[in-house]
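Q: A reviewer asked whether we had any structural model of the full assembly, not just the individual parts. We don't, so I'm hoping you can provide one. Inputs are below.
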Amino acid sequence: MNAVTVPAAEPSVAAGMPTRRVLGAYLAEARSECLRYMRAPGFMLPIMLFPGMFYLLFGVVMGKSEGVDAARYLLASYGVFGVMSPGLFGFGVSLAIEREGGLLTLKRALPMPPGAYLLGKMLMAMAAAAVVVLLLLAMATGLAHVVLTPRQAALLLLTGVLGVLPFCALGMFVGTLFKGQGAPGMLQLIYLPMSFLSGLWFPLSMMPGVLQQIAPVWPSYHLDCLALAAVGMGQGAAWPHVLVLAGFAVAFLLLAARRLRRHG
Amino acid sequence: MTESSVPVARLAGVVKRYDRQTALDGVDLVLRRGELLSLLGPNGAGKSTSIGLLLGLIRPDAGRAELFGLDPQRIEARRRIGVMLQSSNLPPTLRVGELLRLTASYYPAPRPLAESAALAGVGDLLKRPYGKLSGGQQRRVQFALALCGRPELLFLDEPTVGMDIDARQKLWAAMRRLVAEGCSVVLTTHYLEEAEALAQRVVVLDKGRVLSEGSVDELRAKVALSRIRCVSDLDAAAVARWPQVASASCADGRLQIATADAVAVVRRLLDADPALRELEVQRAGLAEAFTELTRDTDLPEAA
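A: Here is a predicted structure for the entire assembly that you could use as a starting point for your response.
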């Protein structure tokens, strides 16, 4: 028929895509993901406000009587508390909402390079974690007079930025279980008890023995150990904690990926 | 096979079941280059399932779905398509320009941003956050995203829902322009006048099967009904019992009759009511044809 007269748009060339453009697509996705959340006060404010307020109250104001060591200790544990939420909520809530709202379906239909969606969210959570840690660092050194070497500060920042990843994986898994507004409630049920049980609010030594014994079950406990080590209050080797966190991240990532592939 | 003989999109003997319900029951569909195909059918007919299969969002239980002769899940195939789905809540805090730039980044040779925006009529919205737009404006932005990658095949699922008449006309014009450039389009719509105005070929689906396939004229010709309208005191129920009258109804003093033999019925009407006014005879539109076609399937199956 008229198939001959229609201008063929270099079909074989059109399908290929130069590596530079593919990388550009990954970058564009990550940039959009960061922008959209940095612009959403409903997301960023609670993430910064809760750890910031807790630290101000317990670390700076009440810490005056307890001495500088308390402020240093709380910098690590509120840092971990602050880092958990962009992972859990940034990943879990947005995934649950985007699954319901059809955005994920559209992205799957579009030629977005594989993994760009999750990678973008991951970078966003890492950036938000960095903001939280920097905020607490500023309060600790500026208001609570905690003295940190540049190396200690950098280590804490690194712990926060990488430490968000296991919580991204956990959030992602919860995001695949619930659609829409069911996820935030469920994530609160995980976030708050887990923080408490890992000794992020009160030192574990002040808690009942049973709770102390089951604390190593929670990933936040291990991240807290690493954060304490970063500010010079660590006990024992760091690598077992790193291994546990890495294993935790991989396990939940695989679980979530399997559910996403099956149920979309 | 040369590239031009490979169909742009194809479903071959596709069966798709959800639990115990059969959504598609052996559907064959071929879309050729530069063609605008409209998929029609009542809710639950299998339109969305067909599109989902062609986009690689779902997999067929039997048969094959292909884009450009490739598996739809291959990214090489999807780099040649543009998509506008029925409901997709895009990030509300991103600006229209940012959304366009992001979507264009997925494609090897996208349109310049200004061109995509102009085609979809969103040039004045580029700096606005998506969440602050009206429903019709959001649909236009989604249309811009669908065409920004310079696709060879465009999927438009109910594109004009929520648009005013002016916006709808503009979108139609843009679709015609894309087709003139050689782009193929798969369009699903609830507005039959939309299919009538745009489609070169119409496929009617019902209960997971292709009921009919052909040009709009061919489809209309299948239903040889005409519509007669007039102002008359005649009783609609009595007229409905006349031979050749398929149906008759009365609304606001206007008598409306569907018939296969308009000439005979008009003659009898004029005889029966000399005071008859405002006589109108119209060939059946796609809407009537569509109603006729899908109504038939409710009868016990003949063959």
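A: Points you may want to mention in the reply: The CA atoms of residues 160 and 168 of chain B lie 6 Å apart. The radius of gyration of chain B is 23 Å.
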